[in-house]
Amino acid sequence: MTKVKQAVIMVGGQGSRLMPFTKYRPKQSLPVLNKPIIRYLLESMAAAGIEEVILACGTGFRTLPLKEAIDNGPDIGLRIEYSNEEEPLGTGGAIKLVENRLDDVFVAANGDVFADILLKEQIDSHINNKADMTIALTKVKDEDRHKFGIAIVEEDGRITEFKEKPRADETSSNLANAGIYVINKNMVSLTEKKVFDLSKDLVPLMMEKQKRIQSIVLKGMWWDVGRPGDLLDVNLAMATKYGDNAMWEKRVRSSIIRRPFYLGEDSFVTDSDVSSAVILEKSRVSGSRLTKAMIMGNCDVVSATIKNSIIGAGCTIRPGAVIIDSDIEDGRTVGSGEKIEGERVKKD
Fold it and tell me: Which domains does the chain have, with CATH numbers?
């Protein structure tokens, strides 16, 4: 069987909808529990036998913070290289830029999503079905179909049609493009366009030429982390799955804890009431009430109330502060008795 050893991850997005947390760092380095978002995808690739990853960085992309976040990947078992665009090229154009460096079969993935998945099954399916492209799909709620590219799939798994962000009456399928592909290199050569998109441009062209586009429904956890609320939700979902493995009991004192709950290394909770919360490394929470909250690393929260909110890294939340439905940027101090409600970037 052909061994797929190479992947390209597109990390060109600016993450503007995730402000204020992407003000100083790329979206892909935002934390999910104890690791940056992209690290989960890299680990999934390494587990599937991938040996080399090319990170396709968009114009103006902050490469250094990403390098620092993933530590260049040797401990994962990957060799990581970088490709930098001088102008926006789209997901397909980013791959076209490195075409001469690609193996005959490779994996391509959108680095803007959280993916803790079983990638090997997709690779095996691609080889076994002699496909030209295999696209990972994920099931979404009917009311969310308009947010994604939706695939129409035959009984044998072959994709016959894509509808990009369809209206409710345009399709009954709820299988969305998860942004993870296995591609034969010669498919990239079908287009000479410098700027193009994989799903919007290359896939229709392949269908027109009757190429075989196969599908597989992902196994594992996949999340479109587009807004701060998504970041909070995926952290709580992962806390449900892994929170009890964190050995946090000895660092919680005189507190009520209602799961899901995750407590990072060197963090402590005392005299607090906590329900559905993720508290990352080297943070201290005392005398506080947390409900559906994420506290990033190196924070100090004292006698505060935090609900449905994310507190950025290095923040100080002083006694009597109340934070509801808000996203507090890194390094901010919320003063004693200060109330913040609805402070959230609203951007489509």
Answer: 6-224 (3.90.550.10), 232-341 (2.160.10.10)
